[in-house]
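Sequence in, structure out. Go.
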Amino acid sequence: MFSEEPYDVVVVGSGVAGLVCAADLIDAGLTVRLLEADGLPGGRMRTDRVAGFTVDRGFQVLNTSYPQVKRRLDLRALRLRPFAPAVLVSTAGGRRRFTDPTRDLRGSADLLTGRAASPRDLLAMGLLSARDLLEPASLVRSRRDGTTRAALARAGASPELVETFFRPFLSGVFLEDGLETSARVFHLVWRSFLRGTLCLPAEGIGAVPAQLAARLPPGVLHTETPVDGLVDGGVRLADGAVVGASAVVVATGMTAATRLLPGVRVPSGRTVTTVYHAAERSPLPEPALVVDPQLRFLNTCVLTEVHPGYARDGRALVSTSVLGELPPGEEARLGEALAEAYDTDTRSWQTVHRITVRDALPAMPPPHPLTRTTRLDAGVYVCGDHRATGSVQGAMASGARAAREVLADLGRA
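Output:
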């Protein structure tokens, strides 16, 4: 027996996939109930305030080139601040600067003088980038798949360039250090870097789902409402109440999706740990990512160089991510690696927050489908970044696809 009048659709999970799905269904005239187990929407895209610091749940950025982002978000309202169009590689001989010369010619000295890479590697990078930038996205998607490492070899990148730049940088992008990710996913992501700008909202990455949620009609989103399981014609809540619906869309993370949908196949997940340190002075006077070819960390940056308001007391906030979990006792070694990367004494840095995010990204080895149907069974659908390319763009596009397929199946397209 239903606890209330059945809805057209119940969406379970209010990450960006669920928020987009619910919004599109409502725009089409359907009645929707969006259920969220947590106290706030956003899923993994959440921001916390810790001891006066703004800290995201893991290091996250917003890429302004994503079509779904441009279509659905008021970017000006987010008060975005950009990262520098450069990646700094920490080496024994100092930091090498890999800069996009089309955006910062003056900062490209390391590239133009051959300090960052050989002329042959610069040519290979240039041709790779030009092809990914200029080809229609449909052609990029239709290329033969393989691993990212194989794609870089085909592009002519030397082993030295791969190990010095591509492997450490992409390890932070895909959360795996073997360059095993689908080449098609790599090319699409590389294309997005070339076409867009990496930014952070003034209030943290959680401002993105908060903006999407604010646009929903009152009464659609119900937080602190965990779903215990699916039943015929709806869902059963943890308190035993049943919410009826003609269709149910599961838009949760991978772990919750497998619990609610025992037969669904999801990829394995990648785990990342992010440590936030406070320093009296900024160790790097620019908003740039620093990576480590030794892979002692994935990437590090001074967040207050991007947004000074991330620290209310005027100190510098440094974010550093490592692959997987950070074992007890390893934080001291991480401090040593950061001292080398920033060429400074880190012993006085204060750890203000540390978070491990499991299933932060889906594994995407080849052959990887760039999009998949969300239909699982009659009236049951599943969406999320694990059904696409593991990005904000992929999550939003998957949510939009779920809405389209629900509308088609209900005869409302």
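Check: The mean pLDDT is 96. The first strand starts at residue 7 and ends at 12.
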